[in-house]
Amino acid sequence: MAGYTYRIDAFMGLDQSRDESLISPSYTPDAMNMDTSDGCLAVTRGFSRYIAAPVPEESTSGIDCVCFFKSAAKKVPLAISGGFIYTYDHGSQEWTRAYAYPLVLQSRHYSTLMTRIGMTDTLLIADGANRILKFDGSDFSLFGSSEGCSDVTVSCVAMYRSRLFASGNYENPNRLYYSKLPGSGRTIEDWGPDEYSPSVEGGFVDVGTTSGDPITAICAISNQLLIFKKSSVYRLIGDRPGNFTVELIKSDSTFVTDTASAVWRDNIYYVTEGGLHCFNGVDAAPMPDARMIRRLMQGADTSDTRMATAGDRLYFTIKKDGESRLVEYDLVTRKYMQYGGFTLYDITAEEGELIITCGTRCLEIWGRGQDFDGTPISAYWQTPLTDLFDKAAIKTLRAAALRAESPSGGPLVLETEVGGVRDVYRAALPEGSADVLEIPLKNEGRTFRMRIRNETGGEFRIVGGIELDISVRRRTE
Fold first, then answer.
1. Residues 127, 81: contact at Cβ < 8 Å?
2. pLDDT tens-place string over residues 202-251
3. Which helix (H) or strand (E) holds 448?
4. Which of 46, 79, 84 is nearest to 63 (CA)?
5. Does residue 73 come out as left (phi exceeding 0), alpha (psi in the -120 to 50 range) or beta?
6. Interacting residues of 201 by C-beta distance below 8 A, sequence separation 6+
7. How far apart are the first and last CA of the chain?
8. Phi, psi of 32 (to 5 degrees)
9. 47: buried, middle or exposed (CB in 10 Å: 19+, 13-18, 0-12)?
10. 381 contacts 34 by C-beta, under 8 angstroms
């Protein structure tokens, strides 16, 4: 009988790209609400209230959109729910209904853009059912005019080369509108022609030829505008109408909703039912590691996906088995993690922090607090099922050695599955991680795996990996 040490040197993230017997022990085929940002394994930080007061509930809708008006003088949080827009007053610490849409679609998606009209900081809100709405920090008014050819219903807005671009008109689903170039009395509210200076005029261009492939989203980076259609992707390049060029990038794309894209370091990231994709300025394709969350994305609903970047993390939401999931992608270390156990409505970034809205109808700040705004966090990490690439050998688990700590004194629960037999071990953890904790184990089989989890929302942190002491023997021994 020979001794063997099974080591997990560091903890990384999800890897569902291959059969779990083939993946590194540092990765997991299944985990929830864990933090591996420093290579250690810890229960994730939760979220707490960014604004204490909940958004008023005047309909059965959740929070359809949350955004911020920002100028040099003030910052105003806004929340849209059931066709009502609420603004938050920091003085009274209350939400006030500030606007009601005359027409509300069943699919309530809102495209928001902070820009300037003339010398006025303005927040634009497009919803696909009504004219673009503008907010100057105090009052709401309708954007555009019939004289400026800009009293058009659209669902998506973006700024590119100092012009406003818009799309998602129901009657003209392939049409991409653009404004005049601001300056010399011109503003982005004018989308009409200019006979004296065609290089600064507004107008539109039709992208593609069939109404069965409508524009669903637009997103701008420094040198081009990406145009998502129902089954294709185009880009617009150029800096004035005379040299605007629309090019087909991909003819076999899957649907990208208008809330499912974000920009980081001049790359456009977006989510389809096939996982995380990236447009790097040349090609729109799945991320090289998109299959790391292959099982998570199978059967997931991305029709209401929201996406945001906060610091060097990218976050997006999906619906999986009828439940909300928040997926985190570390843009530096290139690893995924998932979070759940709460209802998610919308997400946005504010000053490098992720702001979410959930079942509390409050704006919550992610990564603050030890629970989900009062709800205990249930967290687990599962190691890959392995036969140690020695299928004929019988493995006997002897002990697990680890350094772990729990500021709250909560236990660590270790579940083993050896040859199909499950056992549960509970270990009280110290406040510090200087000492090595040994947990005696039992049972034998040809394959094994572990599940590490918390209990009743308790905290723990495993430092420096885990070692399993294993005896290995042949049937004849």
1. no
2. 999 999 877 789 999 999 999 999 999 999 999 999 999 999 999 999 99
3. strand 448-453
4. 79
5. alpha
6. 180, 192, 193, 194, 241
7. 7
8. -145, 130
9. buried
10. yes
